Amino acid sequence: MTGSDITKELETLRRRVAELECLLTEREQEETKNKENGRQYHLVTDNVTDVIWKVNLDSPAHLNYISPSVTRMLGYTVEEVMNKTMEEIFSASSLKNAMKILSDEIACIDKKQIDQHKSITAEIELKHKNGLRWSPKTGQVVKIEFCS
Hints:
By secondary structure, the protein is an alpha+beta fold.
């Protein structure tokens, strides 16, 4: 290898290092942005008065996420609710209604007929930790929203 070859190789390596440094900087900026977005998302979801429910479409009987406002609404801690099935939280008729809505939405997703702005309002009855049934007050709406 000649001195000229070494110089060319060194220059190639320097360019590659500079490219990698740029990629690393972009990745760090993206991670910072994602952390901030996550922080803002949790700021909203952790402080909203409505209960936000998130389920996996593959196993809708179990929750992936529930907002802390569930404690005010149903008396359970987030951890308690996360360890419960939907059957333990919803009244039988409300669970049947929610599963029907979910089934219809899965069918729309399967057919690629997704309306990202769709919001479904449903009357539901939930089981409070104290054993009583909870349902929305007059004027209070419970919405089930599906995002794909």
